[in-house]
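Lesson 9: reading folded outputs for more than one chain in a single document. The general rule is that every protein is listed as its sequence immediately followed by its structure tokens, and records are never interleaved. Here is the first one.
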Amino acid sequence: MRAQKKIVNHTPETSKNRVVQMHNQRIESHDLDPDLLYISRQIAFTNPTTLRQALPGHWALFRFHDIKPNSLSFTSQLGHTQLQGNVYVFLPANTLIEWHFRPEIFSYESFTSFAPMDTPTPQYPVVIPFHKPHKLEHHRDIIDFLIHSGLREMSPSATTPYVPHKVKKFFDVHFTEDIPLAAITKDLRMSHMTMTSKFKAQFGVTPVQYRNALRTFEAKRLLRNKHSVTEAGLMAGFTSMTQYNHHFHMTFNHAPSIATKL
């Protein structure tokens, strides 16, 4: 298995790097702006792998280099999207997505921020091909890049059915709270099974899986903000540390304690 071409780092030389090396991946991160996190990652997959990602309240821009045909794709509520070559993938806040990796070594970068954008952006993932990497060092650079890429024109017109949309919006706001699903089904006047099937048909996961994904990514954000492993899990909404560690490891392929070093 051959590694892809080395990525080009366009970040400031003065940035303070944080590097974590694990058995199958290397992660380097640093803050570009107070509200913009840059991560460079190289990860090896020996088997077909699906990773679920939920973005509670923050947006992300991924930059992939030299993706081989049929090696990487993602699934969102808009369907299945195959990636190839050099592409950016923009994920707006509160996105739910599943990445599908084939056995390969992948190198990619991500730019993540909780700061709101002062320009309209689409509500769904958008893919932007590129030939030469853009110099992205500040929050403003990301916004200018998206505007000049015609991102608003690429925004899809799909709509989400009422029940999945309402359940998702509820969890986007209340995912840290310990609210039983029975309260939601009562408000919708439908059974737990019906609500779950409608949600999964739209998003590919159950409401409980979506809530756990939101909590997992929120815990990661809290760990970056210097909260302890236990504090981050509890504040994100987990009531079981065993479940917290399980979901974190399944999502990021490492324990919460590793995230405190990034």
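And here is the second record, again sequence then tokens.
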Amino acid sequence: MQLVVTAGPLPRALADEARARLTPRIYTHYASTEGGPVTLTRIEQPEDLRWHRILPSCEVQIVDDSGHLLPAGQEGLVRVRPMEGVTGYLDDADASRTFFRGGFSTLATSALSARTAAWRCRAG
């Protein structure tokens, strides 16, 4: 059996209890309407609850409000470019221009960038 948690952060106490009572195979998964599947992280140690491992099928960037890439450790917005090449919303050109640029969709999610293929959602 494996447990995949989506739609929100997994508290450490709940992960520990699930591991003890259900299965050691626990994953967190992040997806968006615009970008589809973005991350899948196996929870093997406490640090795994802090970072999301980016799937090879998409590119993730952390950018400022102007769309400029931020260095590791800086907080910004998550921008996703899926391999499938989603380019906008159906029949909504205004929203597409606002949220899709250069093949990326900008999500209303604040995150910290990392030096590796991972990112962390801002708490609270």
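What the second record shows: The helical segments are 12-21, 93-99.
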